[in-house]
Design brief:
- This protein is of the alpha/beta class.
- It is built from 22 helices and 23 strands.
- A hairpin with a 3-residue loop joins strand 22 and strand 23.
- Helix 1 runs antiparallel to helix 2 and helix 15 packs across helix 17.
- The protein is elongated, with a radius of gyration of 41 Å.
C-alpha cells in the first residue's frame, strides 16, 4: 500500500504520539552531557537510553494499528450512541429546513404528531401556528405557544448553523442566507398551565353592590309593601351571587359586600353582568324600577388592595350615572351596562352643600381662575361666567381662561369685552393664567372632569385647591386631588348645575342680563331646546335665570347661523349613510366654517329626526383632527361607543377626537366599533 494512502494520526493525537520521540532525543543529549563528565557513568546512561529507545520503537510500531483501530471503532460507536440518544430523547425534537419542511423527527416527536419518521411535509400542516412568519428567520431563537390534541406546548425553535459544513462539502452549493437548519423542541406545559389556571380561577375577587335609587323606589310603592320589595331585592342579589359560588353580606340598607372567585367573574363578564337587568324585573307595584351599581376589584397584591379597587370602581360607576358595573383590574378598567338614563334627584340638598363648600374655598383665597374644556362651547362658557359672578359677589379677583375663541362663543365673549363695567383681565390666555396661579389660587374646572380635556391642564399642577363642577359621566381619567368635586351625570348641563349653586351661594343673588343669557344659552344648547335630558330641576334652573333677566329672544338671535354654516349642516344631513339599519353616519364639510364642530353637532341632532334612527354620528375635520359628534334619544348609549374611541360624554350626547387618521379611516373605525359592540351585546 502506498504510504500516502495510509491512515495517519493528525491533530492533538499526532502531537501526543510524537512526545516519546522527543523524550528520546532529550535522553541522548543528556547521555552526551554525562559522557563529558564521566565516561563510565555515560556508558550506564547510554545502556538505559538504548533500552528505552528499543522499547519505544517496539511499542510505536506494534501497537499503532491497534490504537487506530480502537479509536475508529470508538468514533463509530459514539456517533451511533449520539444518534440513538437523539432518537430516544424524551423531549420531542425535530429538524426543519429554512422553509419549515420536516427533515428528521425523533421517536417522541413522532408519538406526539402521530406520524412516522419518514414524514417530510411542512411543519405548518401539523401546527398551523408554526407558519412561515413564526420561523426564526431574523432571530436566532423563537418561542411559540401552540395547542395540539388537547395539550399545551411551547415550541422552541433554534437555528443550527451550517457554515462549517458548507466549507467542507462541495457536492451542493448553499446560499449564505439559507445556510442553517432549524431545531424544533416541544415542551409540554399542559399540566403547568392547568395549575396556573386553577390558581388564577381561585383568586379572590371583592365587589360592592349599591342600589342607585333605593329611597325613590320605596317611595313609589305602598308603605305596607316596602319590606317585601326590600326582601325580594335582597333575595335576587343573594341568589344570583350564590349561583356563582360567591358570598353576599349586606352592609347597609342599600349596600352589599360580595366575595367571588375569579372564575365567577369571568362568567359575570361573559353575561355582561346580567344582574343589572334581572334586578329591574323585581316589581310589586313600584312605579320605578330598581337599578344597581356594581364595583369589582381584582388582581390586587393583597386582599385589602382588592377592596380598595372595588371601592374605586363603585365610585366610578356611581359617578357615571349608575345602572352599570365597573371592573378595576389594577390599572385596567372595564365598563358594563350603563344603558339607562339616571333618574333626576328630587332633592337639592347636595347642591346646597356644594354651594356652601364652594363659597368657603373662594372666600379663603385671593384669586379665582376658571376654565372649561378645550374648544370652549356655550355650556362651558356660561358655567364659567356663573362662577365668575359668584367670585365677584365675594369681592375676589376672578379670571376665565380662554385660548382660541371659536365662532360659536365669539358673540358671547364680545358682550363682555365691549362692556366697560367688566374688567379687562376677565379673560386671560394660557400664559397669563400660568403666571396668575399659585398656592393661594382656587382653580375651578367646569364642564369637564378629565385633565387632558381641560383648557389649560398645566395650571392644575400649580395649586392645591381645585374645584370640579361637571355633568359628564366619569371615565378612568380624572382630575386628581380636587378638594371639591361636584359631578352629577343626571344634570342636563353644567349651566344647570351652576344655576342651582348660585341660588344657594348668597341671599337674594342677582345676575346681570347678559350673564343670565349666557347660562340660559348653555342649558338650551345641551338640552337641544329642552327636548333632551330635561328634568324638573332643568326647568327650575331656567325659571331662576328668567327671573334674573335672561331673555329668550336675545338668546335665539345669538344662536342664528350664517348661510355657510346652514348649508354645511344641510349637506351633512343630505349625505348621511345608514349603517346597520339604525345608525346614521355622515361627514360635515368644514371648508370656510369658523366653528365646524358646532355645525357637526347640530347636524347630528338633525339626523335624530329621521324615523328609525337610534343614534347619529357626524365626523368633522378641524385643525388636522377628526371630531365625532354622537347623539341618541333613548335606545342607544352613545357614551360607551365613544369611550371605545377614546372619548366620552353622556348616554345620549357624546363625542370623541381622533388624531393621525383621515375622515374615511375614522369612519371605518367607527363602523368597526359599532359592529363589534353589537356582536358583544354591549349596545
Amino acid at each position: 500500500m502506498n504510504k500516502k494512502n495510509k491512515v495517519k494520526h493528525s491533530g492533538k493525537l499526532k502531537s501526543y504520539m510524537q512526545w516519546p520521540i522527543i523524550l528520546a532525543a532529550f535522553l541522548i543529549l543528556m547521555d552526551i552531557s554525562v559522557f563529558t563528565v564521566n565516561v563510565r557513568a555515560g556508558v550506564v546512561v547510554f545502556c538505559f537510553t538504548a533500552a528505552y529507545f528499543v522499547l519505544m520503537l517496539i511499542l510505536l510500531l506494534r501497537y499503532r494499528p491497534f490504537i487506530l483501530r480502537e479509536m475508529i471503532a470508538f468514533a463509530s460507536q459514539y456517533a451511533q450512541i449520539q444518534k440513538g440518544m437523539l432518537k430516544s430523547f424524551s423531549i420531542p425534537y425535530a429538524v426543519l429546513d429554512t422553509d419549515g419542511k420536516v427533515l428528521w423527527m425523533n421517536d417522541a416527536f413522532c408519538d406526539v404528531v402521530g406520524k412516522d419518521s419518514r414524514y417530510r411535509k411542512n411543519i405548518a400542516n401539523l401546527f398551523p401556528e408554526l407558519d412561515a412568519s413564526a420561523l426564526p428567520c431574523k432571530k436566532d431563537e423563537t418561542n411559540i405557544q401552540i395547542f395540539y390534541n388537547g395539550c399545551d406546548y411551547q415550541a422552541h425553535m433554534r437555528k443550527l448553523s451550517m457554515e462549517d459544513m458548507d466549507e467542507e462539502i462541495s457536492i451542493v452549493e448553499i446560499p449564505k442566507e439559507r445556510n442553517y437548519m432549524i431545531a424544533l423542541y416541544l415542551f409540554d406545559n399542559t399540566e403547568m398551565n392547568y395549575y396556573i389556571r386553577q390558581n388564577q380561577e381561585q383568586k379572590m375577587v371583592t365587589g360592592l353592590i349599591y342600589l342607585d335609587n333605593y329611597e325613590e323606589a320605596l317611595e313609589s310603592v305602598e308603605e305596607v309593601r316596602r319590606s317585601l320589595l326590600v326582601a325580594l331585592i335582597d333575595r335576587k342579589i343573594s341568589k344570583y351571587v350564590a349561583n356563582l359560588d360567591g358570598i353576599t353580606k349586606k352592609l347597609e340598607k342599600d349596600k352589599y359586600f360580595v366575595v367571588l372567585k375569579y372564575k365567577s367573574l369571568e362568567e359575570l363578564e361573559a353575561s355582561r353582568f346580567s344582574l343589572l337587568e334581572e334586578v329591574k324585573t323585581v316589581n310589586i307595584g313600584n312605579e320605578m324600577s330598581v337599578t344597581l351599581s356594581i364595583g369589582i376589584g381584582v388582581n390586587g397584591s393583597t386582599y385589602l388592595q382588592n377592596y380598595e379597587f372595588s371601592r374605586i370602581a363603585i365610585e366610578l360607576a356611581l359617578g357615571r350615572g349608575g345602572d352599570q358595573a365597573v371592573v378595576k383590574d389594577n390599572d385596567k378598567i372595564s365598563y358594563y351596562g350603563g344603558k339607562s338614563q339616571q333618574m333626576e334627584k328630587s332633592t337639592r340638598v347636595k347642591a346646597r352643600v356644594k354651594a356652601h363648600a364652594l363659597r368657603e374655598f373662594i372666600g379663603s383665597h385671593d384669586d379665582v381662575v376658571i376654565m372649561g374644556h378645550k374648544i370652549t362651547d356655550i355650556d362651558s362658557f356660561g358655567a364659567a361666567i356663573g362662577v365668575w359672578r359668584a367670585a365677584r359677589i365675594l369681592d375676589k379677583k376672578a379670571h376665565i381662561v380662554l385660548s382660541d375663541i371659536t365662532g360659536s362663543i365669539r358673540p358671547w365673549v364680545n358682550l363682555f369685552l365691549d362692556d366697560k363695567e367688566y374688567p379687562e383681565d376677565m379673560f386671560v390666555t394660557h400664559d397669563e393664567a400660568r403666571h396668575i396661579v399659585d398656592n393661594d389660587t382656587v382653580v375651578v374646572v367646569v364642564d369637564t372632569n378629565r385633565p387632558s380635556m381641560a383648557e389649560c391642564s398645566q395650571i392644575l399642577n400649580q395649586t392645591k385647591t381645585i374645584v370640579v363642577l361637571d355633568h359628564h359621566r366619569q371615565s378612568s381619567e380624572v382630575i386628581k386631588n380636587a378638594v371639591l368635586s361636584y359631578i352629577e351625570p343626571y344634570a342636563s348641563s353644567a349651566c344647570e348645575m351652576i344655576a342651582e349653586i348660585l341660588q344657594y351661594f348668597a341671599d337674594d343673588i342677582r345676575l346681570r342680563g347678559k350673564e343670565a343669557d349666557c347660562i340660559y344659552a348653555g342649558i338650551i344648547i345641551d338640552t337641544n331646546n329642552f327636548m333632551a335630558k330635561t328634568g324638573v330641576r332643568t326647568f327650575e334652573a331656567a325659571a331662576f335665570l328668567r327671573r334674573c333677566g335672561a331673555d329668550v329672544t336675545r338668546v335665539r338671535k345669538m344662536f342664528r347661523n350664517d348661510m355657510g354654516a346652514y348649508k354645511a349642516r344641510a349637506e351633512a344631513v343630505r349625505h348621511a349613510e345608514v349603517f346597520q339599519k339604525y345608525y346614521a353616519i355622515s361627514v360635515c364639510p368644514s371648508e370656510d366654517l369658523e366653528s365646524p364642530t358646532v355645525v357637526g353637532a347640530q347636524a347630528a341632532n338633525e339626523l335624530l329626526n329621521i324615523i328609525g334612527i337610534k343614534a347619529s354620528f357626524v365626523l368633522t375635520e378641524y385643525k388636522e383632527r377628526i371630531y365625532i359628534s354622537a347623539r341618541a334619544i333613548d335606545e342607544v348609549n352613545v357614551q360607551i361607543i365613544m369611550e371605545r374611541l377614546g372619548g366620552g360624554g353622556h348616554l345620549n350626547i357624546a363625542g370623541a377626537q381622533l388624531d393621525g387618521v383621515t375622515v374615511e379611516e375614522a369612519k371605518e373605525r367607527l363602523k368597526d366599533t359599532i359592529k363589534i359592540m353589537i356582536e358583544e351585546g354591549a349596545i
